[in-house]
Every structure is written in C-alpha cells, then in structure tokens.
Amino acid sequence: MFNRFFLAAIAIAALVQSSTAQTRHVVGDALGWIVPPNGPATYSNWAANQTFTVGDTLVFNFAAGNHDVTRVTQSSFNACNTTSPLSRTTNSPASITLTASGPHYFICSFPGHCLGGQKLAINVSARGSSPAPQPSSPAPQPSGSTPSPVPAPARTPTPAPAPAPESATTPTPAPASAPTPTPRSAPTPAPTRQPATHVVGGALGWTVPPNASVGYQNWARNNNFSVGDILVFNYPARVHDVVEVTKAAYDLCNSSSTISKSTNPPTRITLRTAGEHYFFCTFPGHCSSGQKLAVNVTGGSSTAPSTSPPSPTATPPSTTTNPPPQSPGGGTAPPPPNNSAKSLGAASLFTSFLVIVAGLLY
C-alpha cells in the first residue's frame, strides 16, 4: 500500500513539474511577426534573451494573408530559400510546439520578407539540461589598431606681471558732457515653433502592423503636424514603399494614380502644404492590412531671423581733452588766441591809439 502511494506521488510531481516548466514565447513580443525595421538583428536579439526547452510553445502573431511561418533547414534559412519547407503555417496566431532539441529555423515565405529580416533561429535544450546558447549574428570585427589617447598639452606657468612704477600725475578735471539719451530697444519677436521630424510608427517603423484595425491611426493621433515638418518612413528596401495619394485612392487602396512614390528607405517627406495628406504601401495586400497613414497638417511654422536689428542710436565718437599748459610760476597760462581775426583787431586798435597820441604831441 505504501509503495503504491509513493509511486503515485512521484508520478503526480513529475506531471506538475512538466506542466509548469513549459513556457509560451510570443515571437517578437509586441512587435509580432513582421518585416522588422532594423533587419535580421531584431529577432536574433529577441531570441538571445529567451531560453527554449522541449515542450515550450512559439506564438507568431501576424496579419493573415501578408505573412506566414515556414520552418526550414539551416541552409534554406541562410539563403532564404522557400522551395523545400519542413512545414508552413498561414493562420494567425500560429502556435508551434518545440518537440525536439537542437536548432530550429523559421522564415516568412512571402517574396522579400526573409531578405528583409523576417527570420528566426533558436536553439532548443532538452528537458532538465542546461540552457543551450542561442544563435546570434556575427559581431563586427574590432579594428586592427587601438587609437592612442591624445596627451593633454602641458600647462606653462605664466609669470605674474611686474607692478608699474608710480608716477606723479596732476589730476585733470573731467570735462562736462551732455547726458546721453538711453537707446530704446527693439521689440523682441515672439518665439516660433521650429519644424519637427516625425519617425512614422516610432520603433515599429513602416510595415504591415500587427493590429490592422488600428494601424497607424493611434500614432498619428498622438502627433501634431505643421507645414515644414518632415515624415521619416523606415522600412526594408524591396519589401515596402511609400506613395502619397488622394483621399479617394486612400480609402480604396488604389495605387493606379499616385501623387508621389518612393522606394528608397529611409524615405523623408516634407509637409509643404496645410490640410490632409494620405500615404500607403503599394505592395499587394499591405494597404488593406493597415499599412496606410493619414495626417492633418496645420499652418506653417516660421523661423526666427538669424540677425538682430541695428541699434537705433549710434555711439558718439570718443574725444580726448588735453590739460591746459602750466606757467613757470605754477599758475595756469592764459589760453592762446582762438583765431587770427582777434589778433588783427587788437593790432589795429593799438595803431589808432599811437596816431592820436602823436597828433596831440605835434
């Protein structure tokens, strides 16, 4: 009786341990299973922070009809070859149970998606063994030489200046000057809003969003757009593009007539006019799955002038006043005549006086 109870307890404990040890991994977390904006490093970095064990489950969240989950061999994974898949799942969310230890490789078989980074490689450990290291992309090689630090220039002590010899100076009364009027300052212009740069989707980038019903509406709702602002669309080349269209074409996801089209990431579009602007991706099924953006642009933002207005009053030139010469006796010598007219007048008066005196004497 005791042996039966003991064996039953061991079996129950094993079942509890097995059920509680299994982990559910949501691939990419909130990003989901998409063509990542940052390339293959996105999912390799995610896998490096996980521990995968036999019995765990991978959950791939994606927009059905725009992505799938294809399990392939290592050679097909490296070459993004979808001709001989081990398995393929097209329904979302796709739940895949890891039933064997060792490396497992997954890609999206849609054209260009694997090359754009929608691929995942993991290493699964056996139950009860130590976690296996996850595959990672090769790290960049360090440069051949390490730059030597630039030595700081030595500081040369500067000798203190010798005191100037004292000299006897005669105080000179300061000339009286007229009060200078206080210049009136020009009015300061009111601060203006500088053009802003908006990265569409933030960290998500420009891709088929996991939640097609919301898409980029929430992102646009949390931003304010003005004339002069710049939209930046980050996406892998040959997997997405950006077209600007009319509202009618936007509502129907009709790309037959576009205002502009860009296929080179990152795409930078300057908002030059106020009003509604509409953008989407022309790749099949992407617009209808939520890869579309509508923004409302308000009036323009002006830039403050870079130069300041001239001062309303000019600074008067400085003048130098020389002290009056000293007489030998210590007093102040009379100032010299101002001009030759006064000298001629004095000489003429003296000559008249002599003539009168001579006439009286003779």
Name a few traits of the molecule.
362 residues, alpha/beta, 5-stranded mixed beta sheet, 6 helices, 19% strand
Structure description:
There is one protein chain. By secondary structure, the chain is an alpha/beta fold. Helices cover 19% and strands 19% of the residues. The protein is built from six helices and 16 strands. It has helices at residues 2-21, 41-48, 74-79, 217-221, 247-252, 340-361, and strands at residues 24-26, 52-53, 57-60, 69-72, 87-89, 94-97, 102-107, 119-125, 197-199, 225-227, 230-233, 242-245, 260-262, 267-270, 275-280, 292-300. The protein has a five-stranded mixed sheet with strand order 2-8-7-4-5. It is elongated. 21% of the residues are buried. Residues 138-154, 165-169, 301-322 and 324-344 have low confidence and may be disordered.
Give the CA-CA distance, first to last residue: 179 Å
How do the strands line up in the largest sheet? 2-8-7-4-5
Helix and strand run: HEHEEEHEEEEEHEEEHEEEEH
Structural class by helix and strand composition: alpha/beta
Global outline: elongated
Low-confidence stretches: 138-154, 165-169, 301-322, 324-344
* Global Rg: 44 Å
Provide a count of the helices. Answer: 6
What is the percent of helical residues? 10-25%
Oligomer: single chain
Strand content: 15-25%
